[in-house]
Amino acid sequence: MEAVQDRAVPDDGVPRIGARLKAVRQARRLTLTDVAGASGLTKGFLSKLERDQASASVAALVRVCAALGISPGSLFEAAPSGEVVRAGSYPPISFGGRGLTEYLLTPSGERRVQALLSEVAPGGGSGAETYALPAEVEFVFVLEGDLEVTVAGEVTALGPGDAFTFSPGAEHGFRSLRTDGVTRVLWVFAPALSEGRAAASPSS
């Protein structure tokens, strides 16, 4: 029996695995040359396999999966909801506030967790009114600059490398403490917010 069948694959209802293999390879930042070297298969065959234009023997598929660091069975499970978001291609979003440029880092359909990147201009922030969010945990990590976070009336100043975890159900808000330069902040919510940051509610 041939280890590899290099032929067109008919539309016979057999699960197509090419797109899954390609997605995993790209997520791991591997080239076809990398996978070819690790699996002992040719780049040409792997390219056809990713386009579902060739089929592989079990042994060949096992070698490909080993090169990618996945189990063969994972190719036939339900497709994962995750996806790679490359640097420089973050989708911009608008959650209100002022002096804010924000980006979504997790897939829009991901409900377990949500990560945002905020670039806050000097003096910018969530605004004068505080707000509460329908999530269980909110995590903030300051990548660059200085940020002030107020939760239930308690003020916390954060600098580069500082992390802060709190309950987003409490009234809270934030603002940049910088007089020049951008403050860059990573926010993580669990579970994900259904419609971004909730509309601000007046602080008491």
UniProtKB/TrEMBL annotation:
PANTHER family: HTH-TYPE TRANSCRIPTIONAL REGULATOR, METHYLPHOSPHONATE SYNTHASE. InterPro entries: Cro/C1-type_HTH, Cupin_2, Lambda_DNA-bd_dom_sf, RmlC-like_jellyroll, RmlC_Cupin_sf, TransReg_Diox_bact_type. It comes from Geodermatophilus telluris. GO terms for cellular component: cytosol. PROSITE patterns: HTH_CROC1. It comes from the Bacteria. This is Transcriptional regulator, XRE family with cupin sensor. Pfam families: Cupin_2, HTH_31. The keyword rRNA-binding does not apply. Residues 21-75 form the HTH cro/C1-type domain. Keywords: DNA-binding. GO terms for molecular function: DNA binding; DNA-binding transcription factor activity.
